[in-house]
Amino acid sequence: LRTINPLSFDQRHRIQTTIDFRYGDGKDYNGPMLFGKPILQRTGVNVVGILGSGTPYSASSRVINEGAGIGQHRLEGSVNGSRLPWQFTTDLQMDRDVPVTFGKKGEDKAKSTNLNVYLLVTNVFNTRNVTGVWRATGSPDDDGYLAAPDYQQEIALQTDSRSYQELYALKVANPFNLGAPRTIRLGVRFDF
C-alpha cells in the first residue's frame, strides 16, 4: 500500500496582505503642511501582514533524553501527521526619499540620485511564532524528559539533581524553535 504524507515544509494556508501608502512631491503632494512646508513629501509607509497555518511534524509517543540525544522515537500517528500552531507576523517600514545632486546644477555633468532613509520594524506585535517543537510533547521548549516517570530515578542519581534539571531545561530550550522577535532597523539606501 502507498501512503501520501505531507512534506515538512507543507503549509496548507498562507494569507498575505500588503498595504503601501506614499505621498508624492511638488504638485502631487496632498499631505499635511507645517508652516507652509510639505512635511511628508516623498514619504511612505508599507505594512505586510502574514498569517499561515503550521507546518507538519512527526509526533512521538515515547519521551527520550533529547538533551543527550539518547533514545529512539516511537511514531505516534502517521509521518508528518501532526501540525505546528498557526503563525502570524506583521512588518512595518517607513521611508523617505531625499534627492541628492552631485556636481553643480548648471553643468551638464550634474547627476541626481535618491537617498532613501528607512525605519524597518519586523514582527511589530512581537508575536511568539513556533517554528519547531519536540516530538513527544509538541512544545518548543520542553521535551518532557524531566517530568517523565521513567526517568525520575536517573535524574535523582545525578550529583546535584536540581542543578542537572536547570541545566537540562536550558539545553532543550532551543531558540531555533521560535521565530525572530521584534527587530528594529534604521538604514540608508542609495538609488542610482
Description:
This protein is mainly beta. The chain is 9% helix and 33% strand. The chain is built from two helices and nine strands. It has helices spanning 152-156, 161-172, and strands spanning 14-22, 33-34, 37-38, 43-52, 56-57, 82-83, 87-102, 111-122, 183-191. The strands form three sheets. The chain has a five-stranded antiparallel β-sheet, with no helix packed on it. A two-stranded antiparallel sheet has the order 2-3. It has a two-stranded antiparallel sheet with strand order 5-6. A hairpin with an 8-residue loop joins strand 7 (87-102) and strand 8 (111-122). The longest helix has 12 residues, at 161-172. 8% of the residues are buried. The model has no long low-confidence stretch (mean pLDDT 90).
User: Count of helices?
Assistant: 2
**Spatial strand sequence of the major β-sheet:** 1-4-7-8-9
Strand content: 25-35%
Q: SSE string, helix = H, strand = E? A: EEEEEEEEHHE
Low-confidence segments? none
Mean pLDDT metric: 90
Characterize this entry briefly.
The protein is mainly beta and 192 residues long. 9% of the residues lie in helices and 33% in strands. The strands form three sheets. The protein has a five-stranded antiparallel β-sheet with strand order 1-4-7-8-9, with no helix packed on it. It has a two-stranded antiparallel ribbon with strand order 2-3. Strands 5-6 form a two-stranded antiparallel sheet.
